[in-house]
């Protein structure tokens, strides 16, 4: 927006209400207000690496002598430059599109307790010049020089700093992925405090502490993995690192961290600046976070999945609330599903209940009583029946419960499950009101619609399946016997009736089950992360090393000054030129090679080539010409030795083969022996070298859903059978990788909704790992394969 010059006949074009300076406060919304005042001080224009320009000024109302009738204004960006050129002291200005903050100098300068910040494309300043004839000639010349007023930077360009480049004392703008957070809580002063820890592609983790007068002014973080954009945070030294704190003009945006979510910002601000470049930044951070597995374990549990002695996050709607004691408040909530356990009943006087005091018998079966304690009681005072909430770190407690303050009237209940939100802020404990545009809120509203439609049809019986259908699945569940064409088929011989996912959660380990479900999502989302290396001996699993690590190991092996290699007597020494070079010359390279003499004379299919001083790319090139290429290094004394087993020990064509470091004790270069057919393959070579060969496997986590619940199942040992592919081909052939991607995209369309997802008929094995102290039951997909698409 421009700095607009007015004459005495002009009026501001936006027609906002002009309020006196005395009415400005941090507790009011000023998005439709303007402030008019005379410039009594204009500071110098200061250059800034973050905002380009900064200028501070003071404007006063009609009674400039009265305390608090003048106010400091801070102008950022190109608007500050235009203000410096177009405005002088004693000019009258009208400012709009500002934000209000606390003035840190109010006691000293006796001005207003607040100050105004003008920044961004909504900020606007009108300056009133009484008459051009009354102005100095220099200002008349400036007016004649331009046919239009100076123009504000309508699309401000903000600079963002990587978290690894923070310097103490600076005020910066940053983006980050949330790896820890605490909801806003009342500090010892007048503000609310929240804290979070963020990271970015620099892999630096930085703590942020934010103080704001209102909880809604804090970043609206819903779960670990969300993305935040913080403007104007100050870098403070802390121990051996730094921390971020909000400074004057602080603002925050938050986004879902899910790769397929929209990029609509979450904010309480009426106006904010968000461009396509910001959208790209959010998308890149999401993609990077997914690769780093920064998204937290899904702790969001519905009432149907609540288990005793666990902590979880609950997304729900508040139906009613009532004080139980000065340190305890009762919240009556529901999420459309029914808890499988008997729940604690809380008796309170109907006169103190805020919200509906009684519900139908069927509705009561879906309602849970949540007891909120200590510091969170203050937060419940701002909650209203009908609000949609996310309660973090809620605890499910079984056993005998008596409530504080009502010991005489409360009946002691045995073996009932109660839900407690304990005091404190550990593990992010707290309550957050969810906005109406939140995806989870939209799903909850669909549930309420189904319930009320059934009530209008005089069908009060609304079972969990019907409620869950409205939440996230098609209206008919194939578990109920509907005619559905499944996209997978079971190949097992088990004669079992299909069960629901909610029933499956209560099964015993060591059993097989048939389920019919949809694929809600899967991890990892990137195919190159799906492929793993598996050792059948120690049953360990590891990622395939990236090119950076492989190049580093090869480089270290080639720079060790151990003298010329001395190959074993069963090898012949020689040299080989890189493919495409018939003679050594500029740009070419000659490599020392050692060939297994006995195998070479038998034919090319048994060639064994040992390379010293090569790069991974050179080994790949030579593997297209020679059958077996083995990178080695020279030990002191000249003996040949294998490279570190964190990299491939054998190249065959486009294939690479790896060994298990833990199980390959005493691995060394030895002569392999051919079998009766004179065949030398990777198994013979690994056996001769004393290497435990690793196998390629596909590892996926399927997040399944049906009409009753959600459940995670692993696809591991039978992944080849499931996709009808070879894992070795998956590692080398693009067409096989594309086939798997098409299958996953068909099961879980990136842009589709639940109605478009096909149903899967699966055989699941329930098991328990011996290392899991919590005795958790896991599920693995068995004897199932994909139908031809």
Query: Could you tell me the number of beta strands?
Result: 39
Radius of gyration: 34 Å
Shape call = flat
Instruction: Provide the helix percentage.
Output: 10-25%
Q: Give a quick account of the main beta sheet: strands, pairing sense, barrel closure.
A: 10 strands, mixed
Explain this structure to me?
This protein is of the alpha+beta class and 789 residues long. Helices cover 18% and strands 32% of the residues. The chain is built from 17 helices and 39 strands. Strands 1, 2, 3, 4, 5, 6, 7, 8, 9 and 10 form a ten-stranded mixed sheet that branches. Helix 13 (616-623) links the parallel strand 29 and strand 30. Helix 7 packs across helix 8. The two termini are 55 Å apart.
Features:
18% helix, 10-stranded mixed β-sheet, OB fold (Dihydrolipoamide Acetyltransferase, E2P), 5-stranded mixed β-barrel, alpha+beta, 789 residues, 5 domains
